[in-house]
Write a structure and sequence with these properties.
This protein is an alpha+beta fold. The chain is built from 11 helices and 4 strands, in the order αααβαβααβαβαααα. The protein folds into 2 domains: about 180 residues, no CATH class; about 70 residues, 2-Layer Sandwich (Alpha-Beta Plaits), CATH 3.30.70. The radius of gyration is 36 Å and the shape is elongated. This is Cell division protein FtsX.
Length: about 325
């Protein structure tokens, strides 16, 4: 009985099971609040340390901005080149030069004959007078052309195949070449294929350049964070002796890498925007001299956000790799 009474007293003194739930909630809430406070402090302290070392921070951000601006500028140029050459690559017309003896009326009858075919969408007749006027306007040899007594240009038919026909419509091309009224058929399929190959090569080169400069950005951030870790080695050792976890030690350097990437990406976007503004006027004048009304376009709102997000991620990743390697190397071997 004497043994049973203390056990009964302990049972009466023990709190109910449901009273431990508020304690657990308070404990989780306290841990969450402490975790948020640690992140907030690391967020501020990493930015404060960058401000305290302005020249080193500025040099790191400049190197990252230039490295990120190069592939972004290449992307803008390639995107405009694709838009400019889009109509050229999609053009499917045949330019049919008729014999010199074929007059304008015969050319119109030939055009009406071709227009009745199911594989032909449209046929446009260009008379020698129209061709000479166009050549006079574009060539810049107007005074020299005035010396000519006769117009040496033939009638020309511009034949547009149907959109759903095979690429280039080789059957129609061979029929036009074999027609006795035709002197020559011009179809620039070869240079269009070369243009597509050049643009494809440019896209692959842009991808390779982006990967290489992305790795360079990663190394720049990693080297900067490594130097910062070495400068704070004694502070890190003291904090670890006090029982700080690896995550606590690593957190300020991760935020430092994030800030470097954020500012570097923003600088790259600004640099590309300035280059675009500087080149827009002369390039538009050049296109206008070739009677081209192509509208240049830069990047929209998505591309800058993606660049800044990617650069911030690269900075964070570079800091994580370096800080993790330092913590693993400094951990005592068992």
């Amino acid at each position: 009985m004497a043994r049973a009474r203390p056990q009964a007293n302990r049972l009466r003194e023990a709190p109910p099971a449901n009273q431990s739930v508020p304690r657990q909630r308070r404990s989780l809430r306290a841990r969450w609040s402490a975790w948020i406070q640690q992140h907030r402090e690391s967020f501020r302290s990493s930015l404060r340390r960058m401000v305290e070392r302005p020249w080193a921070s500025i040099l790191t951000v400049l190197v990252m901005g230039i490295a990120l601006a190069l592939p972004l500028l290449f992307y803008v140029l390639l995107d405009n080149a694709r838009a400019l050459s889009g109509g050229l690559r999609e053009a499917r017309e045949f330019t049919v030069f008729l014999q010199t003896g074929e007059g304008t009326d015969a050319a119109r009858r030939f055009a009406a004959e071709l227009g009745q075919r199911k594989d032909v969408a449209a046929v446009v007749v260009r008379t020698p007078e129209q061709g000479l006027a166009e050549f006079r306007q574009l060539s810049g040899f107007a005074e020299a052309l005035d010396v000519l007594q006769d117009n040496p240009l033939p009638n020309v038919l511009v034949v547009s195949p149907m959109a759903d026909s095979r690429v280039g419509n080789p059957a129609l091309l061979e029929e036009l070449k074999a027609d006795p009224r035709v002197d020559m058929v011009q179809y620039d399929a070869t240079w269009r294929q070369r243009l597509s190959a050049i643009l494809e090569f440019g896209a692959r080169a842009m991808q390779a350049l982006t990967i290489l400069l992305g790795l360079a950005t990663l190394l720049v951030v990693g080297n900067t964070v490594r130097m910062d870790i070495q400068a704070r080695a004694e502070e890190i050792a003291v904090v670890q002796l006090m029982g700080a976890s690896d995550g606590y030690v690593r957190r300020p350097f991760l935020y430092a890498g994030f800030w470097y990437g954020l500012f570097g990406g923003a600088l790259a976007v600004i640099a590309v925007g300035l280059v675009e503004l500087a080149m827009r006027g002369p390039l538009l004048e050049l296109l206008a001299s070739y009677q081209n009304r192509f509208a240049l376009h830069g990047f929209g709102w998505r591309e800058p956000l993606l660049v800044v997000a990617a650069s911030s991620l690269l900075g964070w990743l570079g800091a994580w790799v370096v800080s993790t390697r330092y913590l693993i190397a400094g951990r005592p071997q068992r």
